[in-house]
Design brief:
The structure is a single chain. The chain is mostly beta strands and 168 residues long. The protein has two domains: 66 residues, SH3 type barrels (Roll), CATH 2.30.30.30; 77 residues, OB fold (Dihydrolipoamide Acetyltransferase, E2P) (Beta Barrel). The protein is built from one helix and eleven strands. A five-stranded antiparallel β-sheet has the order 9-8-7-10-11, with helices on one face. A hairpin with a 5-residue loop joins strand 8 and strand 9. The radius of gyration is 21 Å and the shape is elongated. Belongs to the eIF-5A family. This is Eukaryotic translation initiation factor 5A. GO terms for molecular function: ribosome binding; RNA binding; translation elongation factor activity; translation initiation factor activity. Keywords: Hypusine, Initiation factor, Protein biosynthesis.
């Protein structure tokens, strides 16, 4: 009955469906850890906790730096409530080339090449030190040195954060 006119389903998404964040109690997050503030993944630079007040919870005041833009952000979270923490990953890839449009070609651990990462100064908004890092990458390529780019990824965003020259 329904089999004759059944249409084949197509799935457009290639995402595994995993979340970019996980919940953590506010009081468990320490300096140097990560936290989501206003939808941005941030690295905590300072935490201060107030005492329990007349109306309940002790509060944690977080001062953090956005890991991609370098902007200072602040948030106030009750220490017993959960807040979201991003999954942050750093990987090293061998850098092969950078084209005129600012796209970098890298070699993945599986031996495949990728050309979807941009030089840091092409990113919008550009992170602090982006122009110097992009210049350093172009110089290393010009000198034909073998080096890695350190790529930080969180919340579906990937960005080149640093370089590491191979030593023989």
């Amino acid at each position: 009955m329904g089999d004759d006119d059944a249409q084949e389903e197509t799935f457009e998404s290639t995402d595994a469906g995993s979340s970019h964040t996980y919940p953590m109690e506010g009081g468990q997050i320490r300096k140097g850890g990560y936290i989501m503030i206003k939808g941005n993944p941030c690295k905590v630079s300072d935490v201060s906790t107030s005492k329990t007040g007349k109306h309940g919870h002790a509060k944690c005041h977080f001062v953090a730096i956005d890991i991609f833009t370098g902007k200072k952000m602040e948030d106030l979270v009750p220490s017993s409530h959960t807040t979201m923490v991003p999954f942050v990953k750093k990987e090293e890839f061998q850098c092969m080339d950078a084209d005129d449009d600012g796209f970098v070609t890298i070699l993945t651990p599986s031996g495949e090449t990728r050309s979807d990462l941009k030089l840091p100064d092409i990113m919008q908004p550009a992170p602090p030190g982006a122009a110097e890092l992009s210049q350093k990458i172009r110089e290393l390529l010009k000198e034909e040195k073998e080096f890695f780019v350190i790529v930080q990824s969180a919340c579906g965003i990937e960005q080149i954060m640093d370089t590491k020259v191979m030593t023989n």
